[in-house]
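S.,

Sequence below, as promised.
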Amino acid sequence: MQKILWYALPVLGVLSFGCEQQPEVEDPDEDTSWVEESHPFGLTKAAGGTNGDFDYCSGAVPCVGQEGDCDNNTQCTAGSVCGRDNGTRFGFPFDWDVCVAPQCLDLIQNNGETGVDCGGVCGTCASACPPQGDPSHCKASSGCVCGNNEGDCDTNADCDPGLACVDNVGASFGMPSDYDVCQIAHCGDRRRSADETGLDCGGADCIPCIPGNDAGVVTPADSGVVATPDAGVADTGVPADTGVPADTGVPADTGVPSDTGVPPDSGEPPDSGVVPGVDHIVVNEVDYDQPLTDNTEFVELYNGSGAPLSLDNHALVLVNGSNSNEYSRVLLSGSLPNNGYAVICTQGAAPGTCAAGLTIPANVLIFNFSAANIVQNGAPDGVALINVATTSLVDALSYEGAIQAANITGLGAAVDITDDPATVLADDVDFLSSLQRLPNGADTQNDGADWGRAVPTPGAAN
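The prediction came back faster than expected:
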């Protein structure tokens, strides 16, 4: 977020302005993932300033609800959180940040609100959204949810149902190139799907493909066929969408559906959403960062192999990206049925339960971390599922970057827990979200393509 500040200088008879860019703060041990630098201008609350002054709130004298401008959660009193770009609800500039109750950030209309996270104690609901292309045009937090081809958005929650916030496509819509735009969901699923002619481009719904981007792109996750639409050799006899030479000798009656790539004996129904060949338990979802204290952290495991798999002699290991060392592990046990889930979470009222705020479906295996707020917040950090008996790595995720030489007790040499390219996505502390394999259970050995961000679904399909 960028704040433009104007100050009158009567002696010079002119206006001058300063521009301050908010830095990104990556601290795995802190709850707050972004902090704005304090500016030398503006009176704080401690110095007798007025509510609404820039940098009015401070750690020395924190603000109560509906006071701002704040920079982070420590500048709000206990029980409040520093909202983001919610100033217009309280009569301040649109990009001012104001202390509010946590309910004002839960993306639910509740507790006296007259709109989603607005009205009542959450401030006035916007009567109109900023214009298309404005940095705050699509902001669910201020009641502005966008339709198709509108931006700039930050998360899928800023878009109408069925749409996805697609990164860095603004140039195709007359906006800055780094703006994110709400589009039909398949245009942001990081697969060549629907009628796309390239990866998330082309077809009736998505942005045009850049020349050359429609070649050699993996087709939808349930096909496994590499498209070669640019083969262009008139006499090859190879259909443009198969890449199979005409003389391969493959009988026409093999029984393999052309749009699945799933061997007849795989046991995977064509509509399962599971990438063929996933024969192991996968790390399927990770939620490591929440507003205020991280009390509802969890890691989800999923078995989409087609048969039950044992968790005996397995462990979930947490890896510190700053030194690549293991810093905690949870021993697992039991059997995970096909299409079954296990959740590792902060302990609730008793062992084998999860902390308040996490609703886990019945028949899901539950294990507990050794402490609350234990999963580090990245840049990067990682989680790994290992088989202790065979001293082998089963599956892993390094989030917010790569960890290519993790030191995990019992595995001997350092192991790479990244399927290149690494995912650079971060768990969004400002909204309810988690990192997820999309589609559910997908493991193409490409973290950059397999992982996305969406509303948490612990113990259920992503």
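The two ends are 30 Å apart (CA to CA).

Coffee later?
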